[in-house]
Amino acid sequence: MDSKIKILIGVLVVGLILIGGKLIWNLSTCRDICYGNKVQPQVPTAFGFDCASIDILACSKKCGAECETHKDCPEGFICNFENCKCIPEIQSEEQVTIATDKTEYEQGEIVKIIVKNNMDKPIWYYDWCTYKCDDVLCLCGDSFFIEKKGEGKYKAYYSSDSIGVEHMSKLIELKPGSKRIYQLELVKFSEGTYRLGMYYGFSKNVSFSEGTIIYSNEFTIGKGGKEETSDWKTYTNKDYGFEIKYPKGNQCEFSEIEEGSFLFGRIELNVINSKGLNLDDYVEKFIADNDLIIETRETTSVANREGIKLTYRFGGTNRYGEVTFVKNNGNIYAIGYTGGTFLCNEPEIFSKMLSTFRFLE
User: Are residues 80 and 53 in the same domain?
Assistant: First the structure.
């Protein structure tokens, strides 16, 4: 081999060794920088010994963060990417909220959806789009989704036709103390209990995987009119001062099984002396006494009075329940059902029966 070629090959080999050594040196010396519980990645430049910063601050367990993604949090919690800590899915009134104008709807009605920013800084999310839906489930906007309850759990809901919309909406800013109102037309929704969800962030780089997820109150959708319960039987109890309707022609019958306790299949109504406890304190005692795992808790309205609604789990697999509490004349009225073998379509009937409950004058 010619000596010049040998020299050239030698130079190339030495050059490759030097460049590789530089890259290895860069990789070993460029350390990610922690800012609080967030990390700013450092990467080596292509040539030389300098390190370059990537303009991203992300939650990192290496820097003491409790969570990096929503999956790092226990059930019922999500990762707050502002402070990198797990927080409950249900946000407080001081945060960002999404709510519907009512809790009971029928087919063909319009749901008004109110998104409000109660924080002292702006948020970003993908706006509700103006796509026109024709006889399909019209749910629009990339930051929004809908879930339906079944067996005590919420799951993503799709209509029997299709979701109807895959339409890119624009990213918008919602300033502190402001709100926006959207509309959802109830077309081809099945009966049941639903909730809306949305995700938002604090910059234009919001994404579903790293955004903060919030949920609305529960709301029910019926077949299309209150006439559905017009031919139901009415149970009246003057001693406890209430009445409630239940379907006739059903193998279950609403009846008092013992003093203050009533059953319709797996639907149960109990009237309890509050012993001076207010509604909140009684509910806390109920949770502790029964060792319940609470999935959702919200304020609701029953018979024109403020109530508290819980969905919960207990015991083992598929052990779940739902109960609503309301107080009247020193008594607590607890109306709910637990999972099990249903004989009378109790999960579907429950919300309709609850809507007929009223106190006697």
Answer: no
